[in-house]
Amino acid sequence: GPGPGSGPAVVLIGPPGSGKSTVGALLAERLGTGYRDTDSDIERIAGKPIPEIFFEDGEPRFRALERQAVRDAVAEHPGVLSLGGGAIMDEETRKLLTGLPVVFLDVGLADAVKRVGLDAPRPLLAVNPRQQWRALMEQRRPLYTEAARAVVTTDGRSPEDVAEAVLDAL
Ligand code: S3P
């Protein structure tokens, strides 16, 4: 149950463009708790933006930083937590999520593209965003599903509506 040391109230997972940040911030407001996302934690710890970590240090290094960021956040943060879209690719990270109230925000390509746009640079979507997103989702879908306690479909829904569905699902 909720309480100090028992982990985040909600953990949001899902691909880029699933609305994790927007819905996460809204959920935190609703629940009266803090919001934290591991992408921001990683940038703070590394002292540089995520694309620079990827290009200068490589994806394996990024995943290692992410693993540590997830470990710390799960231990320290009692509120709403969002993970980067690829966090579930790492086996150790997946283990850290065992038993937590993890919700997979599911989304189709069309809505993901609408949300993500091309403004925020994502190293894994830099060449051909649509095709790369599709490939990532195909590879990751089983991992998102396996890691999640509940799946919430976000296509065509407002952040408020999705936040409500997340609360209902838990
Ligand atoms: C990634 C998603 C990004 C970020 C990094 C890698 C991925 O987070 O962690 O660019 O592998 O899908 P968002 O899901 O917040 O875009």
Characterization of the model:
It comes from Streptomyces fradiae (Streptomyces roseoflavus). This is Shikimate kinase. Keywords: Kinase, Transferase. This protein is α/β, with parallel strands linked by helices and 170 residues long. It has one domain (10-169): 3-Layer(aba) Sandwich (Rossmann fold), CATH 3.40.50. The protein is built from 8 helices and 5 strands. It has helices at residues 20-31, 38-46, 50-57, 59-76, 91-96, 109-116, 129-147, 159-169, and strands spanning 10-13, 35-37, 80-82, 102-106, 150-153. It has a 5-stranded parallel sheet, with helices on both faces. Helix 1 (20-31) packs across helix 8 (159-169), helix 2 (38-46) packs across helix 4 and helix 3 (50-57) packs across helix 4 (59-76). The protein binds shikimate-3-phosphate (S3P).
Please describe the structure with a list of short key phrases separated by commas or semicolons.
about 170 residues; Rossmann fold; 5 strands; kinase; Shikimate kinase; transferase
What's the quick description here?
With 170 residues, the chain is of the alpha/beta class. It has helices spanning 20-31, 38-46, 50-57, 59-76, 91-96, 109-116, 129-147, 159-169; strands at residues 10-13, 35-37, 80-82, 102-106, 150-153.
